[in-house]
Specification:
The chain has 461 residues and is of the alpha/beta class. It has helices at 22-39, 44-60, 62-73, 77-101, 109-114, 141-152, 166-178, 196-200, 214-227, 249-261, 281-293, 313-328, 360-363, 379-387, 402-411, 444-449, and strands spanning 3-7, 12-17, 117-126, 129-133, 156-160, 186-188, 207-211, 230-234, 239-243, 271-277, 332-335, 350-353, 370-376, 391-392, 396-398, 418-419, 434-435, 438-439, 452-460. It has a seven-stranded mixed beta sheet with strand order 11-12-13-10-9-15-16, with helices on both faces. Helix 2 (44-60) packs antiparallel against helix 4 and helix 10 (249-261) crosses helix 11 (281-293).
Amino acid sequence: MPIATVNPANGETLKTYEAMGPEEIERRLQLAEATFRTYRTTPFAERARLMHRAAGLLDGLQPDIARIMTTEMGKPVKQARAEVAKCAKAMRWYAEHAESLLADEEPADDDVKDSGASRARVRYRPLGPVLAVMPWNFPLWQVIRFAAPALMAGNVGLLKHASNVPQTALFLEDLFHQAGYSEGTFQTLLIGSGEVEEILRDERVRAATLTGSEPAGRAVASVCGDMVKKTVLELGGSDPYVVMPSADIDRAARIAVTARVQNNGQSCIAAKRFIVHTDVYDAFAERFVEGMKALKVGDPLEEGTDVGPLSSEQGRADLEELVDDARRGGASVLCGGERPDGDGWYYPPTVLAGITREMRIHREEAFGPVATLYRAGDLDEAVLIANDSPFGLSSNVWTRDEAEVDRFVRDLEAGGVFFNGMTASHPAFPFGGVKRSGYGRELSGHGIREFCNITTVWHGA
């Protein structure tokens, strides 16, 4: 895949870039290793000063980078601006909390004495250069939620971004340099996917994190497993959105629309499977379909646009295949389901009902504004349908019944359970999944410790 900005609203190639050759890759790896030797000892106060400065610069550049993101991958520009603001918030959060999150831990006195020590503690030390392989769908946020904790922990970052968002990738490198970080602290590698394995096998790269598809995660995990290197993987999701009879149906249906079509439906944590108790199914379905039909699809640079184009022509073709397969299997198309005429890789908000386990869309992730509706006879069936997926990233449940809350928390196979609201990520809460949605956690204290050497320090009596 060429490294290029191709506007998904019209298919026009705007900029192309030459991939870095072996000599430049080697130079950057050497620089990362050398920089880590000194940056790792930088006091937290200085790390925080630099991170705060980067966040301030990002605030000022919000309109420019938002437009770049929209032009590169098609998200509505108002959502792009919100993504920029979220990144600055996370950078400040880690600047303010990293030192306390990584403070030495003191074991209980009785345990210290029992171990034969005069004193003991647990210290968190940085690992070294970390390679981040990142996707195009949230081209700024996915990187920042790795970079902010990794840099605050004393690591240095190497970014292999998706080939269709090169301007965003270069912007990120420049942002950290402008903030005062030395050149080797955060570097963008303009390379294709074929060069990733060799870099992962390089002894100077100590760990890797990937957000992306399941096949990409398998490839990175396989290489890192062979090299015995730490990895964090955030892969696909097909999140359930369960609606029980006690829910506020109007609000649940209204938020369901946003939960499905955020980022043009191209979000791992977007709600995709809507599992509704039979007592409220008809009422919810009517309101949900009405909301999906009312969305404005159009130019993502226009402020009034709700849904822009998909990021690529192939992405739209893949989504169409899932819808067509479901239709052939007997699914009902309640709205959408047909490619519009005209330029760009647009696909309409679509709702499918009558889904069966034999349909591909039941087990595969629909990466676009396509929702599937399921009717559940009771709570047990709702849980069964929700868990009948190879993925387990997050989940949404609408209920006012505390007994049901306890049951869903206990039984849903997911990295998060969000009640009476849509899934969202926040720097204070851990983010990640189970099953084929990956392993490890980003954000919060859990995220910053993923790329630390957790060191036992023991002193004899």
